Structures are given as structure tokens and as C-alpha cells.
């Protein structure tokens, strides 16, 4: 190889190296501050929605406070809920003492202990876990699930058959219906109440600003990605093309 040929080869290798260097796309972020500002504005708009919701609730509470029937209905509902919970709890406690439940609980505990024991053996065996251990795990897991299902079935049947629970549920449903009827009247009253009207309007405006802020954030993020891709493509394609033209 002559000196001229060697020099020519070196120039060609150098040009190829430069072209390769610039052809590799680098990570370019168009404007991270714009994204951060958009997300901040969106967060502030969301807080404004929460504040407006609270203001509307406060305005409605002011109407409720003027109607003694509302407070009475709420107290009755709370009482009915507590009585239903207490009746259900008593029915469950009774179910837990039944021979069928005790037997199912014993099967569950034994199967659960077996599962945990086999898990330890599997961890100790590592990659060399035998089929026998796998079969034991499958059998114990199935037995535990079956026992759990039997326990829940006994509990559900006990609660459903309990007369006190049935009566408490009926009382709760009646109290809930009464309160829902008052809620309908409340909405009617709120529609003509100045404070509620103003609060409702403020909430609608806050919701609109929040939706606009979310849309703006999405648009900024989209533009940011597009600009980043554009810079990468322009940088890589231009340098590679320039090197190829030499």
C-alpha cells in the first residue's frame, strides 16, 4: 500500500467515525420547564375544584340546618346502620361457635400450616424443587381455599337467616329512603338558593379550568416529545447526510 493510499484510507475512516457519532440520536428535551409549569397549573386547578366542592357542600349544609327533619332523618339512618352492624356481628359470632364452622376452621388452619411448611421446603430446594413438593403445594392450597369457602358459606347463611339482622336491614332501608327523599327536596331548594347558585357556578367554572389545564398539559407534553424527536432526527440525519456526501 502506497503512502497516498494509506492517507486516503485514514481520511475515509475519520469521516465514517464522525458520521457514526452524529448519526446516533441523543436524548433532547425541548422544554422541561414548560411541562413542569403546565403540571403545576393543573394541580392548582384541581385544588380549586376541591375547594369549590367544599363551598357548595357548605352552602347546602346551611339549608339542611334550617330543616329539623333532615337532622332527625340522618340520626335515624346512623342508628339503623349501627343496629344492622351489631346484629350482623352477633350473627357471625354465633356462626363461629357452630360445629360446622369449627370443623371448617380446623381444616383451614391445618391446610394453611401445610402451605407455609411446603413454601419453606420449596425455598430451600430452589431450582431443584421436586414434583412431589409441587403436588403437595397444590393439594394444600386447594384444601385451604375449600375450607375458606366453607367458612364463608356458613357465615353468610347464618347472617341471612338471622331475624334480628333481617329486621335491622329493613329499618336501615326505610331510614335511607327517607333521607334520600329529603335529599331530593334539598336539591330543589338549592336550585333557588343564592348561596348555592353562586357556589354551583363557581364549581362549574373551576371544573372547566381544570379540564382546560389537563388538556394544556397533555398538549405541552405532546409538543415537547415532537420537538425532541425533531431535534434528534435533524441532528442525526443532517450529519450522516453530510458525511455521506463527502
Report on the architecture of this protein:
The protein has one domain (24-240). Helix content is 90%, strand content 0%. With 246 residues, the protein is mainly alpha-helical.
Please give a quick description of this structure.
This protein has 246 residues and is mostly helical. The protein is built from 7 helices and no strands.
Assign a percent range to the helix content: over 70%
Largest sheet: none
User: How many beta-strand runs?
Assistant: 0
Q: Spans of 5+ residues with little confidence (pLDDT < 50)? A: 20-29, 236-246
Q: What count of helical segments does DSSP give?
A: 7
Q: What is the 3D shape?
A: flat
Number of domains: 1
Oligomerization state = single chain
Structural class: mainly alpha
Measured between the Cα atoms of the first and last residue, the distance is: 23 Å
* SSE ordering: HHHHHHH
Mean pLDDT: 86
Please state the CA-atom Rg, rounded to the nearest Å: 36 Å
Report the sheet-strand fraction. under 5%
What secondary-structure arrangement, pairings included, does this model have?
Elements: H1 3-23, H2 32-64, H3 68-95, H4 99-125, H5 131-161, H6 163-191, H7 194-245
Helix pairs in contact: 1-7, 2-6, 2-7, 3-5, 3-6, 4-5
Characteristics:
246 residues; flat; 7 helices; mainly alpha; disordered C terminus; single chain
Amino acid at each position: 500500500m502506497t503512502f497516498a493510499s494509506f492517507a486516503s484510507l485514514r481520511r475515509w475512516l475519520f469521516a465514517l467515525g464522525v458520521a457514526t457519532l452524529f448519526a446516533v440520536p441523543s436524548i433532547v428535551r425541548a422544554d422541561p420547564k414548560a411541562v413542569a409549569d403546565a403540571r403545576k397549573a393543573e394541580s392548582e386547578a384541581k385544588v380549586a375544584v376541591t375547594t369549590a366542592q367544599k363551598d357548595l357542600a357548605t352552602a347546602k349544609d346551611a339549608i339542611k340546618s334550617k330543616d329539623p327533619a333532615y337532622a332527625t332523618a340522618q340520626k335515624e339512618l346512623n342508628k339503623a346502620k349501627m343496629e344492622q352492624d351489631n346484629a350482623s356481628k352477633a350473627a357471625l359470632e354465633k356462626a363461629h361457635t357452630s360445629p360446622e364452622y369449627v370443623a371448617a376452621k380446623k381444616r383451614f388452619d391445618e391446610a394453611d400450616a401445610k402451605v407455609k411448611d411446603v413454601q419453606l421446603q420449596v425455598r430451600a430446594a430452589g431450582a431443584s424443587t421436586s414434583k412431589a413438593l409441587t403436588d403437595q403445594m397444590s393439594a394444600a392450597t386447594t384444601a385451604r381455599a375449600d375450607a375458606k369457602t366453607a367458612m364463608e358459606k356458613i357465615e353468610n347463611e347464618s347472617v341471612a337467616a338471622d331475624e334480628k339482622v333481617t329486621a335491622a336491614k329493613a329499618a336501615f332501608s326505610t331510614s335511607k329512603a327517607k333521607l334520600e327523599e329529603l335529599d331530593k327536596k334539598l336539591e330543589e331548594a338549592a336550585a333557588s338558593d343564592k348561596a348555592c347558585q353562586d357556589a354551583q357556578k363557581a364549581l362549574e367554572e373551576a371544573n372547566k379550568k381544570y379540564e382546560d389545564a389537563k388538556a394544556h398539559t397533555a398538549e405541552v407534553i405532546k409538543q415537547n416529545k415532537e420537538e425532541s424527536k425533531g431535534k434528534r432526527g435533524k441532528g442525526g440525519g443532517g450529519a450522516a447526510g453530510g458525511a455521506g456526501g463527502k
